[in-house]
Description:
The chain is mainly alpha-helical. It is 62% helix and 5% strand. The chain has one domain (3-72). Strand 1 (3-4) and strand 2 form a beta hairpin. Helix 1 (15-25) crosses helix 4. The two termini are 14 Å apart. The relative contact order is 0.17.
Amino acid sequence: MFYHCPxxxxxxxxxxxxxxxxxxxxxxxxRGWIESKCLSxxxxxxxxxxxxxxxxxxxxxxxxxxEAERDEE
Length: 73
């Protein structure tokens, strides 16, 4: 399964890679999409910078996986 960025349509092999893309791009459109899903870009970024591992990416990764499952149905 491939994951597609809902903003720029970049294709990623897994949800975590796509979460890294969305957070790493950090432009207004990608931040706006994150905020539209009731997540806080700044809180995710802070968690990623201050926590060990991928804790900042985890909520976004889970959201992307749920949305991909919904789109498959």
